[in-house]
Amino acid sequence: MNALSDKDSVGDQIHLVSIPDGLEPWEDRNDLGKLSEAIFQVMPGKLEELVEKINGSGSDNISCIIADESMGWALEVAEKMGIRRAAFWPAAAAMLALGFSIPKLIDDRIINNDGTPMKNQMIQLSPAMPAMSTTNFAWACIGDLTTQKIIFEVMVKNNKAVKVAEWLICNSTYELEPAAYTLFPQLLPIGPLLASNRLGNSTGYFWQEDSSCLKWLDQQPACSVIYVAFGSFTVFDQTQFQELALGLELTNRPFLWVVRPDITDETIDAYPKGFKDRVATHGCMVGWAPQQKVLGHPSIACFLSHCGWNSTMEGVSNGIPFLCWPYFADQFLNQSYICDVWKVGLGFSRDERGIITQGEIKDKVEQLLSDQTFKARALDIKEKAMGDIKEGGHSHKNFNNFIEWMKA
User: Fold this and answer.
1) Please, which of 35, 88, 177, 283 could form a disulfide with 279 given CB 3.0 to 4.6 Å?
2) Residue 2 has what pLDDT?
3) Residue 373 to residue 57: CA distance in whole angstroms
């Protein structure tokens, strides 16, 4: 357990502290079986020790614990210690609704007891919710079968633990996902949670931001730039990476491409030969970008995205049409929202090799940007989503009520 220090403070009111996960520094945290076992056996006791230490220090006591829904054990510790408790869900409400529906999915023989699908099929939790492929359930498209079963077991544990939460809040809006809240009314949206809502800057990145791209965007025409970013985890092999690069080149449009140092599995320069020189006049590549500021820039025409929920909310909140390239977990569900429910984007088709080709990329860019109905719907969705956080909106009311509950 780390002692608090000045460097562990954010302002004068937020202090950061870590607790052990049960593994030694040299042990492999990619071994989910070992990590899961260590977390559930070690961290609850360490959190309890931390709370007791703070409450015995003579300063203000811990009166409320807010935990990520995936850390359900922290809610159980709070209940045990008689502390008020709230769960926060950072992804789509429909994603949590899927987790809550696991018992019914088993009863309806859609999945087995270990989460594996009975067969490949499309389902809807309710008629107004996005269609989901059983092979793309969040736990079914991460890692190997052993990893998938571990993630499924953790989700089942969290579904039980979250029942002790007095509040269950999520980073979404009623306007974006009304059917999910009808299905599970205990879910309360307080989003979209964006730093730009308070004219602030986002913090907590894996990579150093390169803000020079904002000056580059200033030099581009309005609604002209393809913004390309795949989040923190997406990795391409060299063939797919080069097809993407050549596809962007083929569009003959300005593009801003976030290329993490680890975005490919190659250790050498993975760009096609001569690519950087050929796109020098209209292409900008950075290691990481200030995404909320980028998406709010008037030069952005569309967002080629992996469809992580934060990216989805940021794009929607700025009225930006999408080109969807999901990688794993909940990203396929988010694509279904974007393309099938909100109709503000297009997905890509893969060839017989499983590759999204340069020609497919060029064609979908042209299709999206030549049809103004995508932009019109995106602006309409933006107005509805942002209206939820204004005075009188669902998210505004829920958030204020939540704050008052914490203060009571």
Assistant:
1) 283
2) 38
3) 60
What does the alpha-carbon distance between residue 357 and residue 354 come to, in Å, rounded to a whole number?
A: 9
Query: Which tens digits make up the pLDDT trace of 115-128?
Result: 999 999 999 999 98
Residue 221: cis peptide before it, omega within 30 degrees of 0: no
Cβ atoms of 347 and 356 closer than 8 Å = no
Count of alpha carbons within 13 Å of 402, Cβ hemisphere only? 23
Q: Which residues contact 126 (CB under 8 A, 6 or more apart)?
A: 179, 182, 183
CA dist 129 and 106 (Å) reads 19
**Residue among 72, 127, 121 at smallest CA distance from 96:** 72
Q: What's the token pair of residue 156?
A: 């089942």
pTM here is 0.91
- Mean pLDDT (whole number) for 323-341: 95
Model pLDDT, residue 5: 44
The Cα 181–Cα 188 span in angstroms is 8
The residues, ordered by sequence, that sit 6+ positions from 253 with a Cβ below 8 Å of its Cβ are 224, 225, 226, 282, 301, 365, 369
Q: What percent of the chain is helix, strand and coil (3-state, nearest 5)?
A: 45, 15, 40
Backbone angles phi, psi at 170, to 5 degrees: -145, 155
Count the Cβ atoms, other than its own, within 10 Å of residue 2. Answer: 10
Helix axes 93-100 and 145-161, enclosed angle (nearest 10): 90
E strands within 199-289? 225-229, 255-258, 283-286
* Number of alpha carbons in the 13 Å side-chain half-sphere of residue 222: 1
Residues in Cβ contact with 363 at an 8 Å cutoff, skipping those fewer than 6 apart: none
> DSSP strand E in 239-353: where?
255-258, 283-286, 300-305, 322-324, 345-347
| Residues in contact with 105: Cβ distance below 8 Å, sequence separation at least 6, in sequence order | 111, 123
Domains and CATH numbers, the chain: 6-97+148-195+396-407 (3.40.50.2000), 197-387 (3.40.50.2000)
Measured distance CA(383)–CA(174) in Å, rounded = 13
**Maximum Cα–Cα distance for the chain, whole Å?**
66
| DSSP conformation class of 59 | S
